[in-house]
Amino acid sequence: MTRSGRAAWAAGGACLLLLAAALSFAWPGDSLLTPDHATGTTTWSWFYLACLAAAFAAYLVGLLALHRRTSALVPVLVLAGAIQLAPLAAPVLLSTDVYTYWDYGRIRAVHGANPYADKPSVFPDDPAYERMGANWRQTTTVYGPVFTLASEGHAVVVRKSPGAAAWLYKGLAALAVLALTGLAAGLARERAFAGAFVGWNPLLAVHFAGGGHNDAWMMACVLGALALAASGRRQLAGAAWVGAIAIKWVALVFLPLRALEARAKGRRVGHLGFAVAAVIVSALATWRYGTAWLEAFGPLAKNLREGADYSIPSRVSALGVPHDAAVALLAVLFALAYLWLLREAWRGRARLGLCAGLLLVATPWLIAWYAVWAVPLAAAEEDRTARLLALGLCAYLLRNAVPL
Hints:
Elements: H1 3-24, H2 43-66, H3 73-85, H4 97-109, H5 145-158, H6 162-187, H7 191-199, H8 202-208, H9 215-230, H10 234-245, H11 255-265, H12 271-289, H13 297-306, H14 312-318, H15 323-346, H16 352-362, H17 375-381, H18 384-397
Helix pairs in contact: 1-2, 2-7, 3-6, 3-7, 4-5, 6-7, 6-9, 6-17, 7-17, 9-10, 10-12, 11-15, 14-15, 15-16, 16-17, 16-18, 17-18
């Protein structure tokens, strides 16, 4: 084994060990790292953050050692599996979203109501209600119908068990990140590096196997669509795009870039697959939720107006710029960047990873797990600028959501 190979495996192993150390600080009864603990001390949070930052530094060293060097893919994927699955042994981390998903699923599956029209507060005695995020109790669901239908099935399976509800969402999110790891490796020329870029990332491990967020589902569909198109199965690729959009609407931003790239390259696309899948999803959603599911943009727009503390517009606002002006400024800059990206796509290169990274910079609602929008696309496309931006955003978001 070469010196660079030894360095890569040492760094990857260190990343896993440091991640495990970080996770251990969620277990004490007075740790605030899990929403299941109502009170506690921030001491464990500081220890956690120090270990997570060290794990991320080891991850970067591993990437440097692997970059532009031949390395076996299978060992990279095995270590990626260990890193991404490790938080399944920890309690729910840093977010109540798994319980919010559970509550929205139970609104329809258990109570026979409509999560697009009826707020969780209508059912305050539901076992999910007490555990879900307080900010979501007065808000109808913002998620697409595919995820909402899946959350109904989840609610039926786990019944009244909060442990089962959380663990199943955590497990599904972890599997989605592993799928992203494999898909990114399959799409890239530097397969081992791309696999490590996604699979060795400790921030993704913490927020998906640890937090169970559904963004990984969306991105698995996006990369699945890219992989299907690359293998010539364009109709299935079109259907995968519908799946991504019907989980979270943000996937829509990537579609015009891919369409223009296909036009520039004379590549046939799966219009029929997209149309059939869209009709099926729309019909199922309308049958189950009426036309209320089309109004899910309303609560989403509310979040965007309010903004999140860790977003770049909020940081600009902290410098004395009015919040609305900061949001508008970043929105204009993203719009200009998107026009440039459209031109790039028209010339034959759809830079989805860079688009995702710039969207994260501009959005007024930025949360740590949104990093998964950019990381796998940057890895798969082998876009150096997108990769640097994705890594910079991951480093910036390490502190986000940590209770200090």
